[in-house]
Design the sequence.
């Protein structure tokens, strides 16, 4: 059996790995509603598949994935599990600190819960970098796949949101058995000056959080924002390849980073 995950290794094997290498991939996702056509585990599954594919190519270890994220507005739909941003920051911080204590100096965090999880994860990464000297970087498909996403998407401006064209295409390629494309429905968000969450729109904007009630109102009855009916396997294949290629390059660059660790204690 191929051993990609930390939990499949023994401690003497980790000790030996650390003599030659110090990279770890750390996948973080969420368990939240993804419309009528995608599974609740979507974001964790995306982070996991990206981590596995990049790890296989670069011979890197993957940390046990985190299936929970910050998804307060998605609580409008059954099955969503949301932890607070403080907890999420704490979980990533303490996981990284444990790994760094053992000698993992280069940590590649993959955020499958695009954009929404970023602020709490960024706080943890910033803190750990400053406190320990370790190299930490967060790869988020919205931003790591910026170039290819702009090329492949056909959704109108504002149409990249939740369980939409890109996310659905990606899942159709990596977990086709979990996608029920017949149930995909289009729901473009209402146009409102400054209120643009689509990361691929160039515009002046502010950041206005949805409340649980406002999110329910604009997404009922599906939970979607955007147009998943434009999704294709072909687009998903291109997106996934670009993301994996970038991750592989990122890991190679991380191996070249000069890293000097400060003395680190575990979290007590
Ligand atoms: Zn998602």
Sequence:
């Amino acid at each position: 059996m191929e051993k990609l995950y930390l939990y499949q290794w023994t401690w003497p094997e980790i000790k030996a790995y650390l003599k030659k290498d110090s990279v770890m991939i750390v996948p973080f996702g969420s368990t939240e509603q993804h419309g009528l056509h995608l599974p609740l585990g979507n974001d964790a599954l995306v982070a996991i598949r990206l981590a596995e594919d990049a790890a296989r190519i670069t011979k890197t270890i993957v940390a046990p994935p985190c299936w929970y994220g910050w998804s307060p507005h998605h609580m409008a739909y059954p099955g969503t599990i949301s932890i607070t941003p403080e907890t999420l920051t704490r979980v990533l911080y303490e996981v990284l600190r444990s790994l760094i204590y053992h000698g993992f100096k280069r940590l590649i965090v993959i955020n499958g819960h695009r954009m929404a999880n970023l602020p709490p994860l960024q706080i943890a990464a910033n803190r750990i970098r400053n406190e320990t000297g370790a190299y930490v970087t967060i790869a988020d498909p919205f931003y790591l796949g910026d170039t290819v996403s702009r090329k492949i998407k056909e959704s109108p401006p504002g149409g990249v949101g939740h369980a939409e064209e890109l996310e659905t295409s990606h899942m159709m390629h990596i977990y086709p058995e979990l996608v029920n494309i017949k149930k995909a429905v289009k729901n473009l968000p209402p146009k409102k000056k400054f209120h643009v969450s689509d990361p691929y729109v160039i515009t002046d904007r502010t950041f206005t959080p949805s409340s649980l009630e406002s999110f329910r109102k604009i997404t009922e009855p599906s939970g979607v924002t955007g147009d998943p009916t434009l999704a294709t396997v072909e687009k998903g294949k291109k997106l996934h390849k670009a993301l994996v290629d970038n991750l592989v390059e990122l890991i190679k660059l991380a191996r070249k980073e000069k890293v000097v660790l400060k003395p680190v204690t575990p979290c007590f």
